[in-house]
Each structure stands twice: as C-alpha cells, then as structure tokens.
Queue: 3 jobs
Job 1
Amino acid sequence: MLGTLFLSVGAAVGMEFWARWAHRALLHAPLRSMHESHHRPRDGAFELNDALAIVNAVPAISLLAFGFLNGGLIPALCFGAGLGITLYGMAYMFVHDGLVHRRFPVGPIANVPYLRRVAAAHQIHHMDMFDGVPFGLFLGPKELEKVGGSEKLEANMRIKFCDSSDIKR
C-alpha cells in the first residue's frame, strides 16, 4: 500500500520532467506539424494536438488495469504508477487547457497564486521568447528563472486568467 502511494507521487512528479523533455525534444522538433495546431488560434472544440494526450493515456490505462486485475507487489506498484500518470494528466488538463487556454471553467483554481504563475509562464512559451522556454508546465516559472525570464514573468502575472464568463467556445 505504501509503495503504491509513493509510486503514485513519484510518477506524478516524474511526468512533469517527461512532459518538459517531450515538449522540447518531440513536439517542437519531429512532431512539430502536429503540435503546431496548439500554437495557432483554434477552430472548434478540438485541435490536432489533443491527440497527443493518448500517448500518456495508453500506458496509464494499461498500468491501472494490470494493477487492478492482478494481486501482488508488482501489480500494486504498476497501479501506483498508472494512478500518478493519471493524476498528473488531470492536473495538467485543468491548468493548461482550462486556466491557461480557457477551454472550460476551472472554478477556484483560477485564484491559486502559484497556478496563476504557472499559467503566466506558459503564456510566455507561446510568445516565442527565451528560445521557447518554458517547455514544462508546473515547473515553468523555475525554467524561466534559469534563462533570465523572471521580469517578463512578473509583468505577465498582471493578465486576467479564466473564469466562467470568458470561456472561448
């Protein structure tokens, strides 16, 4: 049980590093044509880039199913890893798609100071400054700090983030 919990937390944290690497090395390189839809104004509810979520969903669902359907230590650890990947994906969706890109209302998370900072950092990524940094989401403010983007981040914090009245449909 404790191993499952630790692996859930570890997988969720590890996903931020995977996401940052994949965003820089894959989405802004060989998969750029697919990811490009995310950097343009969206027509309709979905964009081609949304299909990339399946890349993380497949292993998460597989690990969860294996862990749920089997007994023992290894299946329990697999379940923990799948749960961590899933929790990261849910947090990413609410902050990235909801708070940053206003695809749906996010309620009170729009008022959490650190998440507003994360959202402001991600918007700087879309401005093509600092060679595209930040590529991660939740550690985006730290990435900007490392490349001298703290001043721009503070200025960007003044923008208004999502509430239910300004959803882009």
Note: Residues 162-169 have pLDDT under 50 and may be disordered.
Job 2
Amino acid sequence: MNENAVSGLRKVYQSRVKLIEGVQNSNIFRAFARLSSGLEKIIAISLVLIIWEVIPRLELVDPFLLPPFSDVARSLYNLLSSGELFRHIGVSFQRSFAGFCLGAGAAIVLGIFMGWYSKLEEVVDPLVQACRNSSTLALYPVFLLFFGLGEASKIAIITWGAVWPALLNTIAGVKNTDPILIKSARSMGISQFALFYKVIVPAVLPYILTGIRLSATSSLLILVAAEMIGANSGLGFLVFYMEERYAVPEMYAGIITLSFIGVTVNYLLVELDKRLTGGWKEKIADDDD
C-alpha cells in the first residue's frame, strides 16, 4: 500500500474520530446518556422492590421480619398523610443541620490554618488523630453527662462527628495547593488576606466540598443513633419506637425515609460540586489533552 493510500486512510480515520467526538459532546447525546442512566437506575430499583414484594409472600423469609413492600408503602403513606412523618423529619433536619453547620464550619476554618501553618499542625495534629480515631457513638454517654438528655447533647455529638471529614479534607486541600500559584501571587505583592481569599480558598474548594459531603453523611448516621436515646421525636426515635411496638412496616417506612433523605442530600451536594468546580475540572482536562 503506497503512502498516498495510507495518508488517505489516516485522514478518513481522523475525520470519523472527530465526528464521534462531536456527537458525544453534543447536547442531544448527553441528554440521551443521562436518560439511559436514569432508566437503568429506575429498572434496578424496580427489580429490588419486586423481589422485596415477592420473597415475603412466598414465605422465603418470615413476613413478620420482612413485610411485603406493599405493606411498607401503605404504612409510609399513612405516616405521610397523618403528618406524623413530616413532624419527625422537621425535628431531625433541625438537629442534623445545626450540628453539621457547627462542625463543618469550624473544621473548614481550622483546616485552612492547620494546612497553611505547619507549626500549628505539628502541635494540634496528635490531638486531632486521637479524637478522630475515637468512636463517636462510644463517646455519646460522655456528651450526655455534660449536656443532659436534651437537644444540646444531640447537636453536640453530631457536631463532633461532622468535624473530622471536613477538617482532614481541608488540610489536604491546602497542602496540595500548587506552590507555583502561591509564588506567583506573592511575586505580585498580594497581601496575606488576598492570598487566602483569591488563591488558597478557590484551590481548596473541591476538597472542602468533598469534606462537606462526608460530614453530611456522618451527621445523618450519628443523628439516628442520637435520637434513639432520650428523644421523643425525630426519625431515629420513630424507627426505634416502631421497633419496640413491633410495628415493623412503620419501622421500615422510617428507614426508607432516612435512606431517601441521605441519597437526596448526597445528590444535591454532588450537583453543587459540579456547578462550582466542574468548569475548572473540564479546563484542567482540556489542558492535559
């Protein structure tokens, strides 16, 4: 095969590659890909629910321990229509949001300073490692002793659990900031405050958002356990109370609600991450290419 033929085939191949890339980058293709992904998830969830419905009815498991999904759905509807579930959701949201904001907010500020000032990290890091490796739920009796059975102990334990993911991710983000950016900013005579605000914070933002997602997940998990002790409202209380009354369908309804809230919160934070850092990630990918 002569050089002209090889060159012609190469051009045809390159044109087809560009055509495929253009189709993949088109809005129609992206919309179709999102639709296909959504349908796959719906099908997977539907199969799980069908299996859940069939297994108890065939008595492959004890229907008392695992009621058919239709019974759970009926109980969920009754809890929603009576307004009881919304009341518990509201109380749980207030507790988890307060603890999450206090914990993540303090962690981000402390993490930036620990990542930036190595001397501060050397002093504080041993205490941080000791605290974060202690089981949060095992410390709950200590919080009960200090804060009592009221709201303060629940918010305090959620705050404690929300601190560590956000703190560690923020420290990692500051340490991984490109030193060339810092040197360039300093060479232009930028102030220390402006350096933090215009260089460090934007560079650390992806790490902060990841830490926030993990802290939000921790807040929800700790919330459930905290509401099972000394509470008279909240989703954790609802699940525990229904289990004690052997109202198993209502118990599963509460668990499903908790799962739905967790998935929704995670989805919203992922979308926030994409909107705030997606453009930067795409630009970095284009530069690498």
Note: The mean pLDDT is 82.
Job 3
Amino acid sequence: MNIFRAMKPERVYENLTKMPWQELYNEGIRTALLDFDNTLGPDHATEPEEYSYKCIKMIEETGIRCCLVSNAKSGRSAKIAEMLKIPVVTYANKPGTSGVLKAIKLMESTPEKSLMVGDQVFTDVIAGNRSGVRTFMVEKLYKSEIWYVLLKRPFEKLVRVVGKF
C-alpha cells in the first residue's frame, strides 16, 4: 500500500455527530470501530462524558454496532467500554492491524462491513486503512492532549496539507 494512501481517510468530519450514520448503514456498514481519546471523549479520561453516550446511542439506533478500539491500557479503556455498554479491544497496537482485526472478529463482522473512526492519522487512519476497512477521521474534540500526541500533530498537519484533507 502506498504510504500516503495509507494516511488518507475516506472522509473527514467535525465530530461523530456530523457523520451520516444512517447512510453508512444503508451502504452496508454494520460495525463502527471507534477510538476513544479525543474522538469519543476527552484525551486520557477515565470515564465517558455525556457526548460519549449520545454518540453511541445515535450510532446504535441506526443498527450499526459499536466497538471501542483503543491503544490505552486495558483498565481505563475496559472501564469506559463497560460504562458505554460496548465491547472493547485494548492495547490495539494502532497503527498496526492486530487490534482492528481482533475487533472485527470480536464483533463477528468483516472488513467490508466495518468502519474505523478516529482523530489521528498516525494511529487510527493508518490502522483502519491497512486493515482493509473504510476509514473516516474526525477532528479532535479538545485541544488538551498528552505530550506524545502533541509531538505528532505538526507532522499530521503536514500530511493533511499534502494529502488535501
């Protein structure tokens, strides 16, 4: 796979509430693989916020099932997923494919019926594209991020300018 193709999402949205979930269901998507940090909730939060619950409800009302796919430690992400009442794959190893493929299997889905959504090019987008699923990107929810994500953002911005997304 071309390195720049691996970094480009199919679409970019402001946030999860702006995505056309019913349209995606009509197109055959049955599984939403969701990053948590700055996609579904605040970066490094220990519990979901109202927005998190709203998004899960909105997505699942269309018939699409949700699964949290997180590079976070199992304790934090498992607690969040339990509170949201959705399955989780922890230590997902994004941008590797193992976590995404494990989530697809856990959800008894296929890559063709799955969609990866996250806020980072170098983890979520690359992992989704390399796994053969449709991949959408959302803008980060909050400015506050852990230091190592902040270090990646200027490079991500360059990729987005060059890739025109």
Note: The two ends are 19 Å apart (CA to CA).
